[in-house]
Each structure stands twice: as C-alpha cells, then as structure tokens.
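re: ur question from yesterday

yeah so i grabbed the chain u mentioned. its 167 aa long if i counted rite. heres the sequnce exactly as i have it in my notes:
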Amino acid sequence: MKNIIVGILTILILGLMAWTASKGGAYQGGEQGKVIANIGGSVEQNSAQAVPHEKSDREKEDEALRALRDKSGNTGAFKVSQNYKSKCSSCHGVNGSGFQNAKAMMGPKLIGQTSQEIYKSLIEFKSGRKENMVMRGLLLNLSEEELKVLADEIGEFPARAKALQDR
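ran it thru and got these structure tokens back, copy pasting raw so excuse formatting
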C-alpha cells in the first residue's frame, strides 16, 4: 500500500514539474525575471519602470567601491591589529562602529563596549552559547589568550577614537 501511495505521489510531482516547465519555468527569465529584479522597489516604482535601467560599468564599479568603503569603515580612523582587520573589520568596521544599511545588519557596533563584555561575547560565540555561524567559524581556532588580546584591543577603541579627535 505504501509503495502505491509513493508511486502516485511521484507521478503527481513529475506531472507538476512537466506542467511548470511547459509554462516557461518558475524563474527562467522573461516576465518572472523582471518581477524578481524589481522586488526591492515599491509598487509605484515597479509599474513606472517597465524597462530596467542598465548601469554602465563605471556606475557598477562606483557602487561596488562605495559599498566596500561603507563595509570596511574609515581606514584612516586609527590603527588596529592585523588580526582584527582580518577577522572583524569586514562586518564590524575598522573602527568598530558596525555595519548596517537599509537591507541588512552585518555586524553590530563594538565601540563603547568594555573588554570584559567583548571577551564574554567572544567566548559565548566560540562555545556556541550564542548562535552565529560566522562568528563561531572565525573564533573556533583561536585560543582563549588570543580572544582576550582581541577583546582588550576592541575595549581600547573609545580611547583611540578620543585621542584621534583630540589631535
């Protein structure tokens, strides 16, 4: 009996797949592609934009460069270790100010937290008590001493920022 039910369901699924393919596919370009491309805009914008504006290579490069600058923070802010740059700055910014835009929040603001708070969070991410696969992956091979050094460095960010402002 189970085999009969499984056979009927398999035939039904294959039939639905064939029917979808005969109608042009779910997302194989065409009208569906335009809907997906305009999904970020409002209804008024989508109806007004019948033909999407093709960006020039220069506009695409400028947009990518702007996003990279926003993501990395101000590189001239203050000196940070290579360990912080390689592990933390892409999400939290070079100066720990965090990275967020209208669509997503990559990494929260670190500047202003004490080194003890940072260290506790790092330990919790590494152990899995706080769930974040990116953080856990970055911290998995670091020793507790390395985590402490990183936390101490981040805890010094407010003093570094103040010293930079006082110049």
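noticed a couple things. The first strand starts at residue 99 and ends at 100. also The CA atoms of residues 53 and 122 lie 44 Å apart.
anyway ttyl
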